[in-house]
Amino acid sequence: xxxxxxxxxxxxxxxxxxxxxxxxxxxxxxxxxxxxxxxxxxxxxxxxxxxxxxxxxxxxxxxxxxxxxxxxxxxxxxxxxxxxxxxxxxxxxxxxxxxxxxxxxxxxxxxxxxxxxxxxxxxxxxxxxxxxxxxxxxxxxxxxxxxxxxxxxxxxxxxxxxxxxxxxxxxxxxxxxxxxxxxxxxxxxxxxxxxxxxxxxxxxxxxxxxxxxxxxxxxxxxxxxxxxxxxxxxxxxxxxxxxxxxxxxxxxxxxxxxxxxxxxxxx
Length: 267
Known about the structure:
Elements: E1 2-9, E2 15-17, H1 21-35, H2 37-45, E3 60-62, E4 66-72, E5 75-89, H3 92-104, E6 107-111, E7 116-126, E8 139-146, E9 153-155, E10 161-163, H4 171-187, H5 189-196, E11 202-206, E12 212-218, E13 226-232, E14 235-241, H6 242-251, E15 264-266
Antiparallel strand pairs: 1-5, 1-7, 2-5, 3-5, 4-5, 6-7, 8-14, 8-15, 9-10, 11-14, 12-13
Helix pairs in contact: 1-2, 1-3, 4-5, 4-6
């Protein structure tokens, strides 16, 4: 499921933090908590996993904020009176609690030590899905556009994360591996193998001449502050079953989806 949210600023001048991904992620958890505090805590602290040894996933992601901004020091100054973004989720309980939380309170704040922006959610609309529910078992080819930077991580010999460019030889294999792990948690290993081994499962990149890199700060100004490098400006094409494509669109591609990375839509 993908939703488009429209935000209307409550201030005459609105400044959004330059690194708004983590604050916006926190807002999403807050909205969920307004409907079901227990589910929000589970999602934030644990997330979904096949067992205690497997990877944990939140199964949601969101796009960049779509609006005209100008950079003012460490903040983005809004030009205009509207901001939109896409919020995608795989689990029905997430969508249900999100809508309930929004109707409980339409106001939200996106802020950190650099800036604080106050909005009201003036509209939320479900976006049409490119694959019909009765076509999830068949194979499709979709061209995808990046709605937020793509992050693909690989541990190096020092135990730190390397952030891979789409030009790296290991980028596609890690992207596919991450998506398979999501499918295993959501549907079980047998279904995941059936969808990715017994059916075509291909991801291709293109348009790398326009590749862009963006270094973003997570938890800016806090002890746990980290720098994350994501990539934009390239094309993606996937050939896979509708169920695999549904997971990519609803839960995101690559790593750190719940902090607003790897959100994709049909091109």
